[in-house]
Amino acid sequence: MTGKEDISMSLNASSGLALKVISKIGVLLVFSALAIFLLAGINIITSNVGWWLSGAFLFLFGGSYLFLNHYYKNALPGIKNNGVWQHSLTARGVFAWLLGIVLTGFYVLLYWYPQYLGLANAGQFNTGLISLFDPFSYFLKQQPASQWFVYGVCYTVAILIMGIKFIIKYRHNRYQVIRTISVMFFQTILAFLLPEILQSLKLPYNDFKNAWPLNYYFFDGWHIDEMLHNGTFGIFVLVWGILLSFFITPILTYFYGKRWYCSWVCGCGGLAETAGDPFRQLSDKSLRAWNIERYLIHAVFVFVVLMTPRVVYTYFTGVSKILFLDTYKMREWYGFLIGAAFSGVVGVGFYPLMGSRVWCRFGCPMAAFLGFLQKHFSRFRITTNGGQCISCGNCSTYCEMGIDVKWYAQRGQNIIRSSCVGCGICSAVCPRGVLNLENGPSDKRYNNPITINENGIQLNKF
Amino acid sequence: MKIEHTQPYENFFWEKNKIDLLQKFVTHVDTKSKCVVFADGAKLNYDALIIASGSVPNKYGWPGENLNGVQGLYSLQDLQLLEKNAPTAKRAVIVGGGLIGIEAAEMLRSRNIAVTFLVREKLFWNNVLPQQESQMISNHIKQHHVDLRLQTELQEICDDGNGNVNAIVTKGGERINCEIVLLTAGVRPNIDYIRSSDIATNKGILVNDYLQTNIEDIYAIGDCAEVANPCDGRRKIEPVWYTGKLMGEVVANTICGKPMKYNPGIWFNSAKFFDIEYQTYGTVPSILPDNMYWFYWQHPHTK
Ligand code: SF4
Ligand code: SF4
Question: How far is the CA of B5 from the centre of ligand 2 (A)?
């Protein structure tokens, strides 16, 4: 006993008026920041944008801090998912639909109508939202902002703020804390800052963690040209890209499963794990959804795998019509349907309706590739501690990939599924400590160290 | 979570595996003509009968125990009733300090309903846990803002005049206003409907090592079964989830022609008290016998 216990007999353990006011101020600040973005978007804020932008960031971070600090200060560490099925925002209520529409709308503007976000024609100045980010962009790379710069900043800020929230929420769980620091690091440094710095050095944009086939344009003609025409740096990008996709990926996946990428490094995964965390329970767990998943994701993968050699062939021969299909058209369609509509609009826009991993689960060719490796050439599995599962269903509910974890756990079977991103949340929410993410030797990967069944308790030799 | 999250399998499972689910109340088992009789008078013949009717919450004849707002917490119906009662409730009183009681406390706190928890013992679960562990859990309960009343028993439950509960009175004479009373003082086998048949019962349905009752082709498993000769360190009635599951697997072997004895091995169990996970392997006595000693360690930075 340390004598520090917070033992309150008060009716609702309310934490006092002062703190409530503080958390309201926090919310107010966050909304002020959003208001600044909105006002800039409709061209009301046009001067001193540097100050406005700094103010917006200050409000955003400060407000979130005040709110989170209040929200979690009096809560003991431990899994709390109270009310996720009661709140409108996290249970597909009105707020969820509103947020879904706003996000989807933002992505539509971003991909197809950036002029409405204020993107200037060549030779003119940015207006609207994009102009708000000009000073920051000049600071980093001496160029005006583009819609992609705005997007990159917002994306990174979302991962940072929601990542901090995630860390506080799961602060009792070391795996979750380290994993989240990892996604925050990779997003901020590799996906955001480094490419901007490269551009300021007049080198081509490159995100060093974005591997083919997720990076579907890696083998496109213009990209190969870009790499070949940028001296040593370009060659380095080319060699690194090939190494990453065809050597590093299989090796790391063999030892750790696809989690090393999907829930530790990847940007899409990073956003899903942080900003998407409040929506993870919305993924569909039914067998029907699993069937759709298998067809869809493998179809996308096959498409990419067929498309890439054609693109390379076209690059070297100049012939673009192969077997009646035009390589450029194919590329264009992939970019539109999969690259933009699926991964962006549906992938993030539908968070509040279908959960945080729609793209990762149904569409990402990288996930399909990693999943294939994970299923057949990996040590990774989730073990189930004999038969100690009580079929409570927490694991399945909070699995963002829609895996019915309980189905395996209650039978004492190990979970080896190509879609599992190894986020470890099923293990964290299990009230019986049943689930463990393991990387032991791959023979007997399907066996459990302990089995408890009709024959009693057995310890199995490995 | 929603109901579908708590079901062991998706609904198509039963039909796909050629299992007919009948939702009916059994009122009598006719062992002579090998049939069960339902509340609506219909009958169903069987070749083998496996009884797995679980438990019902204990009631000890407290005055007012049948008022509206007074309930147990065992079945889906109980949960639905609680969902109905909870939104208007300000305070709930939980009577009986066991595992169901603490789960109920946690559920109610998650909805911001104030909870008073009456426990007869000196400390929470003191009749199962050794002193120090009991102390630790009791502190933890208080940290979660539950008004834990140790060594306090229920005297009566009061009526607001319309058949709804509005308060309870403890044996010490204290009156506590509340809108919900949860009776969680243990469970007993749900076998009242069996008593009219010639299946032998004691507290539960008596079964042998093969989980067979005194009548061939009738088996009993789970909470409602009373194992006549349990193996070492095991109790006759063990109302926990995994024994029910093991028994099911054993009987399945037996009725499929591979007779199998029920042998659960050493006792183990697990639970969760708010944020503390509890696991036990083997029997840990709550009162120390002469020839044993305890080892208790607590991380110095924890409460
Ligand atoms: S199975 Fe567990 S570790 Fe895998 S994705 Fe689902 S919640 Fe994450
Ligand atoms: S959360 Fe744990 S106990 Fe609950 S169903 Fe999953 S594995 Fe079983």
Answer: 11
Q: Which of B6, B12, B16, B46 is nearest to B29 (CA)?
A: B46
Q: Is residue A53 part of a domain?
A: yes
User: Rounded to an integer, what distance in angstroms lies between the CA atom of residue A215 and that of residue A172?
Assistant: 35
DSSP structure class, residue B201: B
Phi, psi of A378 (to 5 degrees): -150, 160
Q: Which residue of B has its CA nearest to A452?
A: B246
Hey, what domains does chain B have and what are their CATH numbers? 1-46 (no CATH), 57-187 (3.50.50.60)
Q: Is the CB of A348 under 6 A from ligand 1?
A: no
A56 in any annotated domain: yes
The total number of residues shown for chain B amounts to 303
Atom of ligand 2 nearest to the CA of A429: 1
- Name the minimum distance, in Å, from the CA of A84 to any CA of chain B: 8
Distance CA A270, CA B113 (A): 36
Task: Determine the 3-state secondary structure of B49 from DSSP.
Answer: strand
> How far is ligand 1, taken at its centre, from the CA of residue A272, in Å?
13
H or E element at residue B78: helix B76-85
Residue at B178: amino acid letter: C
Structural domain harbouring A445 = 380-459
Q: How far is CA B144 from CA A15, A314, B276, in A?
A: 13, 66, 12
pLDDT band at A207 (very low <50, low <70, confident <90, very high): confident
Which residue on chain A is closest to B241 by alpha carbon?
A390
User: What does the pLDDT look like over A395-445, one tens digit per residue?
Assistant: 999 999 999 999 999 888 899 999 999 999 999 999 998 999 999 877 777
- Report how far apart, in Å, the C-alpha atoms of A412 and of each of A130, A266, A278, A285, A408 are: 54, 31, 29, 19, 6
Q: What's the number of domains chain A is made of? A: 2
Q: How many beta-carbon pairs below 8 A join chains A and B?
A: 98
Q: A397 and B10 in contact by Cβ < 8 A?
A: no
| pLDDT tens digits along B118-148 | 999 999 998 889 888 999 999 999 999 999 9
Closest residue to atom 1 of ligand 2, CA basis: A430
pLDDT at B159 over 90: yes
Q: What does the pLDDT average to over B79-106? A: 92
Token duo for residue B263: 């042998």
Residues A66-76 have a mean pLDDT of 81
Digit-coded pLDDT (tens) for A80-137:
888 888 888 898 989 999 999 999 999 999 999 998 888 888 778 888 888 889 889 9
User: Could you give the angle at the alpha carbon of B165 between the alpha carbons of B163 and B166, nearest 5°?
Assistant: 125
How far is the CA of A319 from the CAs of A184, A303, A307, A327, A418, in angstroms? 43, 19, 14, 9, 37
Query: Which residue of chain B comes nearest to A7, CA vs CA?
Result: B143
Q: Is residue A302 part of a domain?
A: no
B181-to-A207, A303, A395, B72, B237 alpha-carbon distances in Å: 60, 61, 30, 8, 27
What are the tens digits of pLDDT across the range B238-249? 999 989 989 999
Cα dihedral B241→B245→B248→B252 (10° resolution): 170
Six-digit token string for B261:
């004895």
Residue A96's identity, in one-letter code, is A
Per the CB < 8 A criterion, the answer to whether B269 and A457 are in contact is no
Q: Are A285 and A399 in contact (CB under 8 A)?
A: yes
Strand order from edge to edge, sheet including B114-118? B70-71, B180-183, B91-95, B114-118, B147-149
Q: How many residues comprise chain A? A: 462
Query: For A393, which of B6, B263, B275 is closest by C-beta distance?
Result: B6
Last residue of a domain, one of A189, A207, A225: A207
Average pLDDT, chain B: 92
Contact (CB<8Å) B145/A387: no
| Domain closes at, from A156, A183, A207 | A207
To the nearest whole number, what is the mean pLDDT of chain A?
87
Inside any domain, residue A139: yes
